[in-house]
Amino acid sequence: MVDQAQKLREMVRQSNYEVMDSYSDREYKEDKTRGKIVTISSGECGVDRHNIMLNLAITLNYLGNKVLIIDTNMDNKNNGYILDDKLPDFNLFDVIYKNMNIKDIIVEGPEGIHLIYIGQSIGKMDTLNEKEKKLFLDKVCSLKNYDFILIATGYGINKYVLKFIACSDEVILLTNSNQTNLKDAYSLVKVIKHFEMRNSIKLIVNNIKNKEDGEMVCERFRNATKRFLDMDTELLGYLYEDTNLVESIKMRIPVCVKYPNCKFSMCMSDIGKKISCETHSNEKEVNDIRWVLNKFFNLFCF
């Protein structure tokens, strides 16, 4: 296990250079259309990351950003909400196995956001040969002009969750006051730190009753991750418990669309503004989806 962990750390450190080698210098320098890759995770179940991702995507869209969602959830039950009961007919790997164009598998969701579904086909990433990888990445190369690419990971802590975290420009961790969910979130941070993937994460505290409740959860979590893991945690914001959220889910309409002035939507608006402002004021080059998937291929298999 120690050898495996050391190998993984080394692969994470080297993966950027390996992926950069796959681009020509000209291609990389002239590609000014790269979007910021944000992975949203929580560890185990209990925090509604897909609903939060959807409303964050819509909020970022309202702020003038073009947003692509990559849904890695292996259980289809969440996609009906995102797509208003229209499950995607195709997934990302149909560009290889059915020779489809990448744009043909993009589904337009609420308020003009775009979505690509991976789901249960994610395991095929480990089985592609070099020719298939090249074909896959060449087709994915056409996915440009997105300001944000949001990835909500599936449940649990597995190699695919860790790969997407390692590939991202930013990781947003979701938690709430539930002790089990706090432990799950802490466990994920512990694994991220163990494999030296990053030294800081962003935090959203969900389902709070009041500001004091959110501050208490944030402070406890931040203190624990800093003291025991030496991991910095930046608070992005709180999301209030809101009956309007429950009603909007029943109607299968995103709460930010149905109830834009409710507590949840206003909090999400503040979070979206913070993320958007940070991105547009940051001069650091970020990466496109081809870069992410290429790095995904070059990262660990275990």
From TrEMBL:
GO term, biological process aspect, one: negative regulation of cell division
Gene: flhG
Entry keyword Nucleotide-binding: yes
GO molecular function, one term: ATP binding
Protein name per UniProt: Flagellar biosynthesis protein FlhG
Pfam families: AAA_31
UniProt entry keywords in alphabetical sequence: ATP-binding, Cell projection, Cilium, Flagellum, Nucleotide-binding
Lineage, highest ranks first: Bacteria, Bacillati, Bacillota, Clostridia, Eubacteriales
Gene3D superfamilies noted in UniProt: P-loop containing nucleotide triphosphate hydrolases (3.40.50.300)
InterPro entries reported in the protein's UniProt record: AAA_dom, MinD_FleN, P-loop_NTPase, ParA/MinD_ATPase
Domain AAA: 36-200
